């Protein structure tokens, strides 16, 4: 069964990218996928080896391109699935049918219309012959039925997981760029969302709860940009691995004439929140873009819950009382 899935990948990709309307994309998203992957990998290797800070913004921007591209492909895969289902073509094949198809290719080669289709996509003669040989040599490896609809849905989800991997590298680059690992985060029982994030979080979460996915997408993007801005600020106080220290301060004079300063300090893992905001944004982009897989609902709910938990940071309180004459 695994060999049959490997066989279906190039066939499915051909179908997907032939389905892109002329002029709909300035570039081939599949070709762009490999270009972004190669560029990002090169930047990761160089940044990891040199710690050259000038590479960090370029690497982060490349990972964001990778997320956008992966979501575009995920959506195209889903649309191809829906178009196939609407066309009425056979999408479920029994093991016996698969074996018969593979044996036909083994004996007579790929159908002429399939060969011509591949040529139009830019396949070389050697690549077409290699595919034909692969099918012929793996007839005996076919084991089990094949559901094209299920395959395409899982394939669309696989590209969302690709976007998560880009989010991982984006967070890694941000942490390596701005944090040096120094300092220890104190233990604190109380937890809360830093006030500097409340507005963005509330806007995002309210839209999500209302089922307004376009609003939630914009909210997730705004929250992610806010986290990035706080993380890269020149005056940011950083600790450990990805922790930002954010403070809130009150000063007042009680009736007894003592000057009181109250300070609340949040030890917030900004890198974790940044990664999770990117992942929630990616799932929302897939939903808004047209991927109708029910699996996305569970993925999104999980990411939103993780993001919310990451924003609740350990808090410390301090109260200082001074006589007014000392002020």
Please tell me the CATH architecture of the largest domain by its name.
Answer: Up-down Bundle
Overall average pLDDT: 87
Q: How is the biggest beta sheet arranged?
A: 5 strands, antiparallel
Percentage of β-strand residues: 5-15%
Q: Can you give the helix content as a percent range? A: 55-70%
CATH class of the largest domain: Mainly Alpha
Q: Would you write up a description of this structure?
A:
The structure is a single chain. This protein is an alpha+beta fold and 327 residues long. The protein folds into two domains: 1-94 and 144-178, no CATH class; 182-327, Four Helix Bundle (Hemerythrin (Met), subunit A), CATH 1.20.120. 65% of the residues lie in helices and 13% in strands. It is built from eleven helices and seven strands. The strands form two sheets. It has a five-stranded antiparallel β-sheet with strand order 3-7-6-5-4. The longest helix is centred in the first third of the chain and has 33 residues, at 55-87. It is elongated, with a radius of gyration of 26 Å. It starts with a helix and ends with a strand. The model is unreliable at 1-6 and 16-26 (pLDDT under 50).
């Amino acid at each position: 069964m695994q060999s049959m899935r490997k066989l279906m990948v190039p066939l499915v990709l051909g179908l997907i990218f032939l389905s892109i309307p002329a002029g709909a994309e300035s570039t081939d998203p599949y070709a762009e996928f490999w270009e972004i992957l190669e560029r990002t990998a090169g930047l990761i290797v160089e940044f990891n080896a040199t710690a050259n800070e000038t590479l960090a913004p370029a690497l982060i921007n490349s990972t964001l391109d990778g997320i956008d591209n992966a979501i575009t492909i995920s959506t195209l895969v889903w649309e191809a699935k829906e178009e196939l289902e609407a066309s009425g073509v056979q999408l479920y094949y029994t093991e016996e049918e698969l074996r018969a198809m593979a044996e036909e290719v083994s004996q007579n080669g790929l159908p002429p219309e399939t060969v011509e289709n591949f040529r139009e996509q830019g396949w070389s003669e050697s690549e077409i012959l290699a595919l034909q040989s692969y099918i012929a040599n793996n007839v005996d490896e076919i084991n089990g039925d094949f559901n094209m609809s299920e395959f395409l849905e899982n394939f669309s989800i696989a590209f969302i997981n690709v976007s998560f991997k880009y989010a991982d590298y984006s967070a890694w680059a941000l942490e390596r760029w701005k944090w040096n690992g120094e300092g220890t985060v104190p233990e604190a029982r109380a937890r809360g969302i830093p006030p500097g994030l409340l507005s963005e979080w509330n806007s995002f979460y309210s839209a999500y709860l209302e089922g307004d996915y376009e609003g939630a997408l914009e909210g997730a993007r705004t929250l992610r940009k806010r986290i990035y801005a706080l993380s890269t600020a020149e005056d940011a106080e950083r600790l450990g691995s990805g922790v930002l220290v954010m403070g809130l301060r009150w000063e007042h004079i009680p009736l007894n004439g003592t000057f009181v300063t109250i300070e609340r300090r949040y030890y917030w893992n900004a890198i974790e929140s940044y990664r999770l905001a990117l992942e929630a944004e990616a799932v929302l982009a897939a939903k808004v873009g047209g991927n109708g897989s029910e699996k996305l609902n569970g993925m999104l709910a999980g990411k939103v819950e993780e993001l919310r938990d990451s924003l609740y940071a350990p808090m410390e309180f301090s109260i200082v009382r001074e006589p007014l004459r000392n002020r």
